[in-house]
Amino acid sequence: MSFITINNQQSVPLSSIPEMTYDLFFDSNITLIENHEERHCVLYFAFRETGNIRLICCIADDLQHNILVSSSLVSSDAVLNSMAARNLSFEKFEREIHENFDIGFVGHPWLKPVRYAENRADKTKTIPDYPFFGIESEELHEVGVGPVHAGIIESGHFRFVCNGEQILHLEIQLGYQHRGVEQLFLEKKKLIQRTTLAESIAGDSVIGHTTAFASLWESLSGMSADYEMQYSRTIAQELERIAIHTGDLSAICTDVAYQLGSSVFGRLRTPVINFFQEWCGNRLAKGLIRTGYNPYPFNKALADRLIAVLDAFEPDFVEMNSELSRLPSSLSRFERTGTMKYDQLLSIGTVGMSARMNALNRDIRLSHPYGIYPDLNHVPVMKHHGDVYSRVQIRKEEVIQSVSYIRQLLKKIPDAGAAQEIPANLKPDSFAISLTEGWRGEICHAAVTGKNGELVIYKVKDPSFHNWLALALAVRNNEISDFPVCNKSFDLSYCGHDL
Amino acid sequence: MLRTIKILYHQGKQFIPDLRKANVPGIFRGRPEISLDKVDSQALADICPTNAITTSPVGIDLGKCTFCGECSRLFPGKIRFTTDYKLAANSRERLFIKEGLRTPVSLDPDLIRKDIQRMFRGSLKLRQVSAAGDNSCELELNACGNVNFDMGRFGIEFVASPRHADGIVITGPVSANMAEPLQITYDATPSPKIIILAGTDAISGGIFEGSPALNRKFIEENHIDLYVPGNPVHPLTFINGVMDLLGI
User: Fold this and answer.
1) pTM passes above 0.90
2) 3-state secondary structure of A104
3) Residues of chain B found within 8 Å of residue A281, distances taken between Cβ atoms
4) Which end of chain A is more exposed for a tag (fewer CB within 10 A), N or C?
């Protein structure tokens, strides 16, 4: 056996992960993933272990609902054959390992810095010196945008190579938002500090990231969240999806200069996030998810309020969407704009709604269900054109689906359970991985503990980690004026990527 | 056309008529009140994820507080978060809430530079810089301009270029990688100009305080005109703070 099979949110002893030579590790993981569309790499990372570098690769099997984990120990000055040369979905992971540990990867197509992390191996590389691709031509020109953008959004740099108005190539350079999150998980010792960090990974995906963290922590502590906690987390996750998807529809309308849609979707989001405030005191649900207890148990009064909010929300949301999808001026901007093909999405390891926009079924709620998702019999919303309009339709249909899930859950409200004792130490010498389906897609947290149960490494992977490349490829051959609507229709996270 | 009118009609009235007196729904965690109850103040201070709680006297630094609510959950008789969203001040000291005091947070009129009210009261254009902000404050600053809060009614707006702006609003703890772009954006803004820090991360670094990936030199070296606490800032906190600064 060249891997151990584990489930989502399960922890295992580190020693149970099979270790093999890098050549075997390479072959095994490539064989798992090649010609197997149901499998993709959810996490591939490295950490220092007594002077060497330990590599751990996690391949998720969506049909078997499990995760295949294998490992290899290489020397700290190793130069390895690149898995990305065979399968592009390893591309970002290898770049990260190269940046942090100076491991070489032969045959990697572009071994460039990922985020200029504070603890990178080579400090002589700095963010202003990023090696962009260039094309020498007298007919082409480059357009640089950012890191500070013309709106209230996060920082990142886009470099276009254009032929007149047409984009030939886009390179997205990130790292400006790097705050050292993974390192801080090790340094901040209190649980509330680590929970606050998880809430701050991406402020638009508070529930997704904090649930991933809390579940991972519970798994490594040998606890399990009771039904009522899972129930609250699920309602919160679907509410977050409704809120952010609706806000994104507003922003997409803004980017095609459709004022009515922009205003209506914008104001429709308000009562949903205000409900979060009524529930937990914060419009973006910071403070709602905690490990081992639920500070704000869901109750009948909240349920009645939420039903009233959804009853008022749904007809206006449906009405606005039906207007948007019959408006020639918006459809002409949405259809066949920023298109990605199925094969492209698969090859770069796209996840979440950006994958589902063209028939690539990646949805953790179905493939690696956690909490009470198995009870919901979730069927992912899939589209088949891969364009801006597919991404608009996915949002619309997922919002309606989430509303129906919440209505279904509200029929029976569980009683709040007792707070659980949180063990002071985590299980020693263990590995755990936790996947959740945020509104963008699969959120992955993983941790390795040492011999006293201390954290040795904490890894966070936001869906944006892979999906930024999907945006870069989607805008090729589009007009540069369509970039804003393409960008917003993906709405990827900068800080989730930069950490 | 008729369909558009119908949609407009269905929206009803969405704007908040009086942004000064609006009530926030539910259990918003705004200005904390700290009673004079005797508690183990060290145990209380140890709860806080960002060392925002001091022991003698017991107090909370709103510039460091992440409003997680853990202290009031475990010491409900000692600390209570009220729904008072007016949290902005123009000096770091004024963000410090001491035990036994119930005075609202306010601006020190003597610290407001004269140019600011004279020049910007009728129109204030701001440029936002996300210096490693986590997109929560960014979402809330966007919400300030939506049809509900409609900050634009006072002539306060976010603009696309620093060259069109009268000041910058910084979110996030200021990463080392953003230090230079932040300085360039500030330099590109014509004088006189103001600096507003939005959110706990910007004011003190928040949960990221002490991370070697930050570079907070810009915040330390420049005069800050307005501190707006929150995690994230509530739109009403931001708008009221700016209105206080402008004397509207």
Assistant:
1) yes
2) strand
3) 26-29, 67, 69, 81
4) N
